[in-house]
Design a protein that fits this description.
With 140 residues, the chain is α+β, with helices and mostly antiparallel strands. It has 1 helix and 7 strands; from the N terminus they run H-E-E-E-E-E-E-E.
Length: 140
C-alpha cells in the first residue's frame, strides 16, 4: 500500500511539473543592424583662455561665490583635428552645488568659438570648498 501511495504521489508530482512546464513561452522578433564605416581622421577639440587660442585652458578658478549667486565663465574652444564636429557641449559639473552649460553648435576644422558657461550656485548649497569640473563633450 505504501509503494502504491509513493508511486501515485510521484506521478502526481511529475504531472504537476509537466503542467507547470506547459506555461513556458518564448518569442523571437527579427531585426536588422547596419554597421557603417567610421570616417578616418582625428577628432580633437582644445580649450583656451583667450580668443586668439594661444593660451591653453588647463585649470578653472571659479573663485568664491555666495549661495544663489550666478556668474558667467568665458573661454574658447578650437577644432584642432581634421574632422568637422557636429556639436560642442560644455557644462560645469557638480550637480549638488551648481548648474550651468549647454550646446554650442558645430565646429569646422580649424574653427574656434567662444563659450560662455552661465554658472549658478544653488541657494540650498552648503558653505564649503567644492571641486567643479568643466566638461567639454563633442559629437561628430
Amino acid at each position: 500500500m505504501k509503494k502504491i501511495l509513493v508511486i501515485a504521489l510521484a506521478l502526481i508530482t511529475l504531472g504537476a511539473i509537466v503542467v507547470i512546464g506547459t506555461y513556458v513561452f518564448q518569442m523571437t522578433i527579427p531585426g536588422n543592424l547596419v554597421v557603417v564605416e567610421t570616417p578616418s581622421g582625428d577628432y580633437e577639440v582644445k580649450a583656451y583662455q583667450n580668443a586668439m587660442c594661444t593660451i591653453p585652458l588647463t585649470y578653472v578658478d571659479w573663485g568664491s561665490m555666495q549661495r544663489g549667486e550666478s556668474k558667467d565663465f568665458t573661454f574658447y574652444v578650437k577644432n584642432t583635428g581634421d574632422q568637422n564636429i557636429t556639436n560642442v557641449f560644455a557644462e560645469a559639473d557638480y550637480p549638488q552645488v551648481s548648474s550651468g552649460g549647454g550646446g554650442y553648435g558645430p565646429l569646422a576644422v580649424g574653427q574656434s568659438r567662444q563659450i560662455v558657461i552661465p554658472f549658478l550656485v544653488y541657494a540650498s548649497a552648503s558653505p564649503g570648498s567644492y571641486p567643479v569640473d568643466l566638461v567639454i563633450s563633442c559629437t561628430a
